[in-house]
C-alpha cells in the first residue's frame, strides 16, 4: 500500500495541472441533463488521448475500462478477479454564471454550479494515475461518466444500460463547499437525503373578487396549505430525524378581480430514514385535504419518489478512510454530518456496496463568503481536485487487491 501511495503522489504532481485544465474546459462548456452531447464528445476525446477504450451505452453516457495487468487479474474464463466502478456525473444546471472567471460558461443560462465539471476532471485524473499502476491492478476498473444527475435520474438510465453488470463495488466523489478545502469525509451510513417531488392541486369555485362569499377561494386555501405543511416536520417528526418539506412554487388565479377557482403548488421532500420517507406523503395528503376542506375546497396530492438515501456501507467507508490516510496524509479525514440535498448515486449503492466521498472545496471570495453548490457564484478551490483523483486511484488499487 505504501509503495502504491508513493507512486500516486509522484504522478500527482504532473496530474494536478492536467485535472485543472480539463476542469476549466468542461466548466466553460456546460450542458444540462440528457443534452450533454459536446461534453460526451470531449470525454471520449480525452479518453482517446489517454489510450483508454470506452463504449457509449446511452446517447450521453460513457463507460471506459481499465484492465489490470497483474498475473491474476483475470480468471480462466476471462472475467476479472474483481471489478470496481468509479463514477462521475457530467450535467450542468440552468444557472447564469456570475463568477467572473476567465473560463466561465460560454453557454448562456447554463453553469456547472454543482461541481460536476470537477467530477469529470477528477475521474480523468484518476484514470491517468491508474495508468501508472496497471501492473498492480488485480482486476478491472470501470469508469462511468453519467448524464442527468440533476433531477434526471441518470443513474437509473445507466443501470438499465448495464453499467453494474459484473461490478463488485462502487465509488463516487462529490466536491463539497461545506467541508474544509482538501479534507475528505467518508463516514458510513446515511450521507445524502432521499429525494421526492410533489404537487398539490387545489380546486375551489371562482367568483367575482368583490363578492367572495359566492365562491370558494383556492388561493386562500392554498396559502393555508403552504403554512400547514411546515408543521409536518416541526410537529410530526422527531427532532432527531432529519427531514425537509419545501414549497418551491405556488400559482393561482387568472385576474386581479377574480377570486381563484384553482391553485397549485410544487415542491420537494428530503429524508434520511425510511420511516420518515414513508410517513411524510401520508401526512401531506391528510394535511392538504383537511385544510382545503375547511375553506370549502378540495386538494389532490401527486407524489413522485425520485431516488433513495445515499448510504455508505461500513466496509467501503473504512477502506476509503485507510486509503485517504495512506495517500493524502493522517490529517486528511474530517467528520461531516451529511447533507439534505439528494444524489442519484444512491441507486448504485442500493444495488452494490460502496462509498460516496465528500471532498472539501470551500473557497472564500474577498468578503469571506464561501459560495455553496447551485449558486451562480460557485467557484471551488481547484487545487484540491488532484486529491480527489489520488484518493480514487488509491481506493481502486486497494479494492482490487483485497
From TrEMBL:
Cofactor: Mn(2+)
This protein's record includes keyword Transferase: no
Record domain Peptidase M20 dimerisation: where: 197-292
GO biological process terms held by the UniProt record: diaminopimelate biosynthetic process
Highest taxon listed in the record's lineage: Bacteria
An MF annotation (GO) of this entry: N-acetyldiaminopimelate deacetylase activity
Cofactor-binding details, from the entry: The Mn(2+) ion enhances activity.
Positions that bind Mn(2+): 114, 116, 150, 174, 374
Pfam families assigned to the protein according to its UniProt record, in alphabetical order: M20_dimer (PF07687), Peptidase_M20 (PF01546)
UniProt keyword list: Hydrolase, Manganese, Metal-binding
NCBIfam families: amidohydrolases
Name of this chain's protein: Amidohydrolase
Organism name: Parolsenella catena
Amino acid at each position: 500500500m505504501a509503495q502504491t501511495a508513493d507512486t500516486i503522489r509522484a504522478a500527482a504532481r504532473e496530474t494536478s495541472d492536467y485535472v485543472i485544465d480539463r476542469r476549466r474546459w468542461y466548466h466553460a462548456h456546460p450542458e444540462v441533463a440528457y443534452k450533454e452531447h459536446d461534453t460526451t464528445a470531449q470525454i471520449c476525446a480525452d479518453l482517446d488521448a489517454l489510450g483508454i477504450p470506452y463504449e457509449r451505452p446511452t446517447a450521453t453516457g460513457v463507460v471506459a475500462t481499465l484492465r489490470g495487468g497483474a498475473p491474476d487479474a483475470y480468471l480462466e474464463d476471462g472475467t476479472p478477479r474483481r471489478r470496481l466502478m468509479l463514477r462521475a456525473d457530467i450535467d450542468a444546471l440552468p444557472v447564469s454564471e456570475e463568477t467572473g472567471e476567465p473560463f466561465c460558461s460560454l453557454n448562456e443560462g447554463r453553469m456547472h454550479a454543482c461541481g460536476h465539471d470537477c467530477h469529470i476532471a477528477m475521474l480523468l485524473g484518476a484514470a491517468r494515475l491508474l495508468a501508472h499502476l496497471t501492473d498492480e491492478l488485480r482486476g478491472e476498473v470501470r469508469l462511468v461518466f453519467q448524464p442527468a444527475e440533476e433531477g434526471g435520474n441518470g443513474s437509473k438510465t445507466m443501470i438499465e444500460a448495464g453499467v453494474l453488470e459484473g461490478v463488485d463495488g462502487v465509488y463516487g466523489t462529490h466536491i463539497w463547499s461545506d467541508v474544509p478545502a482538501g479534507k475528505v469525509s467518508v463516514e458510513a451510513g446515511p450521507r445524502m437525503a432521499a429525494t421526492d417531488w410533489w404537487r398539490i392541486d387545489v380546486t375551489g369555485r371562482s367568483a367575482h373578487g368583490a363578492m367572495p362569499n359566492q365562491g370558494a377561494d383556492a388561493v386562500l386555501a392554498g396559502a393555508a396549505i403552504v403554512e400547514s405543511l411546515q408543521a409536518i416536520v416541526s410537529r410530526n417528526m422527531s427532532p432527531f430525524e432529519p427531514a425537509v418539506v419545501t414549497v418551491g412554487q405556488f400559482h393561482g388565479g387568472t385576474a386581479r378581480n377574480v377570486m381563484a377557482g384553482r391553485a397549485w403548488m410544487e415542491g420537494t421532500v428530503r429524508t434520511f430514514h425510511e420511516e420518515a420517507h414513508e410517513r411524510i406523503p401520508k401526512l401531506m395528503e391528510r394535511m392538504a385535504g383537511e385544510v382545503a376542506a375547511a375553506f370549502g375546497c378540495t386538494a389532490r396530492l401527486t407524489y413522485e419518489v425520485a431516488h433513495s438515501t445515499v448510504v455508505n456501507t461500513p466496509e467501503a467507508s473504512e477502506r476509503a478512510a485507510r486509503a485517504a490516510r495512506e495517500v493524502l496524509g493522517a490529517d486528511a479525514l474530517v467528520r461531516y454530518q451529511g447533507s439534505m440535498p439528494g444524489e442519484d448515486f444512491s441507486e448504485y449503492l442500493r444495488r452494490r456496496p460502496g462509498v460516496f466521498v465528500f471532498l472539501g472545496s470551500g473557497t472564500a471570495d474577498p468578503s469571506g463568503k464561501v459560495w455553496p453548490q447551485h449558486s451562480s457564484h460557485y467557484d471551488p478551490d481547484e487545487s484540491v481536485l488532484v486529491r480527489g483523483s489520488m484518493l480514487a486511484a488509491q481506493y481502486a488499487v486497494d479494492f482490487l487487491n483485497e
